[in-house]
Amino acid sequence: MMILLQFDSKTVREPVISQTTLEKKTLINIIRASVGAREGELIIEVDDSRADEIIEFIESKGVKVTKIYEKIIKDDEKCVHCGACISICPVEVFRLEYDYRVAADSERCVRCGVCVTVCPLKALELSKI
């Protein structure tokens, strides 16, 4: 499961990810991070079966936690199936179907956003969290 963590000026200085990994004996995959002196945001991936337990622990450290259910959104009305997203996606969310139409498996998406920037018709967008 992908989770958005939002740190404020107090929590951004705490080793919350390290504490979670050590105390909960779990692996955490950091998908994206933007951390400054006063705030920060991380998108992490955790084991689905332990997500609630890990979320509860992180929230107890004062971090705002939001589950990410929907990742990339493809507008089939705008898409011309040019395949630009297929060639740029690092985790192979997109594939060409037998009828040469682009299909998306949003479960694989890591919200990096590179497909959004290369789509010439703006048919892709990251879901709001």
UniProtKB/TrEMBL annotation:
It comes from the Archaea. Coiled coil: none annotated. Pfam families: Fer4_7 (PF12838), NIL (PF09383). Residues 70-99, 100-129 form the 4Fe-4S ferredoxin-type domain. SMART domains: NIL. The keyword Hydrolase does not apply. One of its GO terms (molecular function) is 4 iron, 4 sulfur cluster binding. Keywords: 4Fe-4S, Electron transport, Iron, Iron-sulfur, Metal-binding, Repeat, Transport. This is 4Fe-4S ferredoxin-type domain-containing protein. It comes from Archaeoglobus sulfaticallidus PM70-1.
